[in-house]
Structure formats: structure tokens, C-alpha cells
Automatic annotation (TrEMBL):
Organism in which the protein naturally occurs: Nocardioides bruguierae
Subcellular location as annotated: Cytoplasm
Location of the Aldehyde dehydrogenase domain: 3-277
Pfam families attached to this UniProt entry: Aldedh
Record function comment: Catalyzes the NADPH-dependent reduction of L-glutamate 5-phosphate into L-glutamate 5-semialdehyde and phosphate. The product spontaneously undergoes cyclization to form 1-pyrroline-5-carboxylate.
Pathway membership: Amino-acid biosynthesis; L-proline biosynthesis; L-glutamate 5-semialdehyde from L-glutamate: step 2/2
Keyword terms: Amino-acid biosynthesis, Cytoplasm, NADP, Oxidoreductase, Proline biosynthesis
Domain of life: Bacteria
Catalytic activity of the protein: L-glutamate 5-semialdehyde + phosphate + NADP(+) = L-glutamyl 5-phosphate + NADPH + H(+)
InterPro entries membership: Ald_DH/histidinol_DH, Ald_DH_C, Ald_DH_N, Aldehyde_DH_dom, Glu-5-SA_DH, GPR_dom
Protein name (record): Gamma-glutamyl phosphate reductase
Length: 407
């Protein structure tokens, strides 16, 4: 399978942008045409998951709807409309000895994906890898086996109709954990591995893989309401960050409030969160409010992915930063403030992949940031950090042109 992907990647490297974009457009149209079949397969996956006692937030990640399928197709079209990073000159110059130096963007070659539940990853990864010149090996979870099989069948057939090898997209069987081990040990056949899912999956891949890994991270994301915040704005941002969709890694899991606005803001935000059925795990100031549960250290470090949030009052911005530095997973943090100096200090001191100023944490997303889609959100610092779009799925090489130069 990996060798077929390698061969396909060589053919893909020769494809023009027009051919790749046409393939993406064909894939998008094919997804919409196959809506009934894909949703039927997904319904079986979801029913099996619910019968097995899978938590509702995980089932939500697994579930496809007509709107979500349409969004996946639109993501492919958006990627098709973006500039092709392959061949872009990162830097170039003519050296003093006359040699012409160019550093160009090139594909990785073969990308392996190991991911849980979310079948939208199947389509996003396939689209981004194709446009960036990479073949992709997709190893989804067994819970989404039917959905992924239906999606990949559509994508492969569409790629072939567009004149590309079907093997640019391949589904790795999910019926055995041995297939995960094989991907992790396929150094030389697979160029880079990207895990996407819970902390356990990610750490297992990072620690057990001999293939280079780009580490995506869990999202223990914070919203800090500063002393200079517009409290109406703050309330809207907190609610959107927490409740717009709870099962995703960019939803807020912790709320910090400056003590200068706590007396006014705490009753408002607690009542608004209760109206959305959000359980609050709070420090002493929050726990004094009706319905708030006392928070523990475990709460401060938890990615709930549910209608739950930890909350605390802090004496100042530096205390908020210290709390974030201790408990954050390095994904996304937000500050709500009307003080430019406070915003600058927060963004400079918080060491996360994305920092929002007066905006919801839910914007840490490739589609929302104009990347068309994303293959994951990296929380590491090497190669890529934050939402990974087309550019992040390339490496570089140097092309040096001389005229009989010798050293």
C-alpha cells in the first residue's frame, strides 16, 4: 500500500495545478452526488457507536449531516481556489561566484494520517494532500469504518476520472491495531505521520513512531476577560467559544476573569452558561454562585469536549498568563480587552499556537482562517504550528544552477 502511494506521489508531482484543481472540483461534485450513500453508511456507524455507549461528544464528531457534507465539498473547492505551494520560490539569489540559488517548496511525498472518529478529516486530508502534491494513507478509527470507506471510494473514483492515479488516496484497514503499528514503523515508505485525536492516541504515535511525526494537540483552550473588557462582547465570546460546538479542539474549556470586573460579570456569565446547560467547575469566587461545582486541579487541566467549563477569578493579567502557562495544552487562548497594551502583553507572554484578541477560540480553524481546510492543528514548534494548510504540507529543496562551476 505504501509503495503504491509512493508511485502515485511520483505521478502527482508531475501534475499541473490545473489537473489537481480539476480533481478537487470533481471530488467535491462526487461527494454531493453520493450524499445518500455516504450518509447511510455514516448512520450505521453512528447507530453502532450509540449502541456501544460511546459518549455523545464523540458521536457528534462522528456524525455527518447534509450540511456537514456540503461543507466538506466546499472545503475541497476552497482548496482548489488557493495558490499551489509546490514550486514556490521561498528565497533565491545569485551568489558572488555566479551560481544561481533557489529554495523551492516541494511535497513531502507520502503522508500517513492516524485519526479518530471524524470522517471530515478523511476529505480534508485528501484534498490538502492532493493539492500539495502528496499521496495520503488514511487510517481512521474502526468507529468510522463505514463512513470512511464510502468517502474514500468516492474520492478515489473522482481522482481517476480527473486523470490522476486513484492511489493518491488510500484507506488503511481499521480492523486491526497492527495497521497503526505498520504505519508508525514504515520509515522510508511513509515520509511524515500526522496523528489527530485524543491525547492518548497522539502520545502513542509520538512515542512509538519511527516515521517523523507532526504532533497535533488536544485543546485545553482559555478565554481571559480582562479588566478593560467590553462585558457584552466578553459574554458573546465566552458563549460562542464554549457552546457553538463543544466536541472540537478549539472550543473553550476554561474561563478566567479579572477581579476588577468579577462582581458584575460573574453572575451574568454564570447565568448565561446555565441557560446553555453548561456545568461550571469554579474556584471559590465562582463556587459562591448557584449551581457552580468546586473546581479541582484535574478540572484546570481537562479538555471536556462537552458542556462543561472550569472558571476562576484572577487578580491581574500576569496571573491569568501564569494560569494559562501552567494548564494550557498550547492550542488556543483568547483575551477580551479594550486595552491595547494588555492585548500586546497577553499575546507576547502566552506561548500557544494561536492567540485571539477579542475573538472566539473557535476561529482556530483552517477554513475560518482562509486556508480552505486543514489537515490538523499543530501544537509543536518544529516545521509547522497552528492550523496546517497547503504550505505546511510541503518541505523545501535547493536547486543550484551553475555554468561549469567547480569548487
Amino acid at each position: 500500500m505504501a509503495r503504491r502511494a509512493r508511485t502515485a506521489s511520483h505521478e502527482l508531482a508531475l501534475a499541473t495545478r490545473a489537473t489537481k484543481d480539476a480533481a478537487l472540483e470533481t471530488m467535491a461534485a462526487a461527494l454531493l452526488a453520493a450524499e445518500a450513500e455516504v450518509l447511510a453508511a455514516n448512520a450505521e456507524d453512528c447507530a453502532r457507536a450509540e449502541a456501544g455507549g460511546t459518549p455523545p461528544n464523540v458521536v457528534d464528531r462522528l456524525r455527518l449531516t447534509p450540511d456537514r457534507l456540503a461543507a466538506m465539498a466546499q472545503g475541497l473547492r476552497d482548496v482548489a481556489g488557493l495558490p499551489d505551494p509546490v514550486g514556490e520560490v521561498v528565497r533565491g539569489s545569485t551568489l558572488a561566484n555566479g551560481l544561481e540559488l533557489r529554495q523551492l517548496r516541494v511535497p513531502f511525498g507520502v503522508v500517513g494520517m492516524i485519526y479518530e472518529a471524524r470522517p471530515n478529516v478523511t476529505v480534508d486530508a485528501a484534498g490538502i494532500c492532493l493539492k500539495s502534491g502528496n499521496a495520503v494513507l488514511l487510517r481512521g478509527s474502526s468507529s468510522a469504518a463505514g463512513s470512511n470507506a464510502a468517502l474514500v471510494a468516492v474520492l478515489r473514483e473522482a481522482a481517476a476520472r480527473a486523470g490522476l492515479p486513484a492511489d493518491v488516496v488510500q484507506l488503511v484497514p481499521a480492523d486491526s491495531r497492527d495497521t497503526v503499528t505498520h504505519l508508525m514503523r514504515a520509515r522510508g515508505d511513509v515520509d511524515v505521520l500526522i496523528p489527530r485525536g485524543g491525547a492518548g492516541l497522539i502520545q502513542a504515535v509520538v512515542q512509538g513512531s519511527t516515521v517523523p511525526v507532526i504532533e497535533t494537540g488536544v485543546g485545553n483552550c482559555h478565554v481571559y476577560v480582562d479588566a478593560a473588557a467590553d462585558l457584552d462582547m466578553a459574554l458573546a465570546i465566552v458563549l460562542n467559544s464554549k457552546t457553538q460546538r463543544t466536541s472540537v479542539c478549539n472550543s473553550a474549556e476554561s474561563l478566567l476573569v479579572h477581579q476588577a470586573v468579577a462582581e458584575e460579570f460573574l453572575p451574568r456569565v454564570a447565568a448565561a452558561l446555565r441557560e446553555q446547560d453548561v456545568t461550571i467547575h469554579g474556584d471559590a469566587a465562582f463556587a459562591a454562585l448557584e449551581g457552580v461545582l468546586p473546581a479541582t486541579d484535574e478540572d484546570w487541566g481537562t479538555e471536556y469536549l462537552a458542556l462543561e467549563i472550569s472558571a476562576a477569578v484572577v487578580p491581574d493579567l500576569d496571573a491569568a498568563v501564569a494560569h494559562v502557562r501552567r494548564w494550557s495544552s498550547g492550542h488556543t487562548e483568547a483575551i477580551v480587552t479594550g486595552d491595547l497594551a494588555a492585548a500586546r502583553r497577553f499575546t507576547a507572554m502566552v506561548d500557544s499556537a494561536a492567540v485571539m484578541v477579542n475573538a472566539s477560540t473557535r476561529f482556530t480553524d483552517g477554513g475560518e482562517l482562509g486556508f480552505g481546510a486543514e489537515i490538523g492543528i499543530s501544537t509543536q514548534k518544529l516545521h509547522a504550528r497552528g492550523p496546517m494548510g497547503l504550505t505546511e504540507m510541503t518541505s523545501t529543496k535547493f536547486v543550484v544552477t551553475g555554468d561549469g562551476h567547480v569548487r
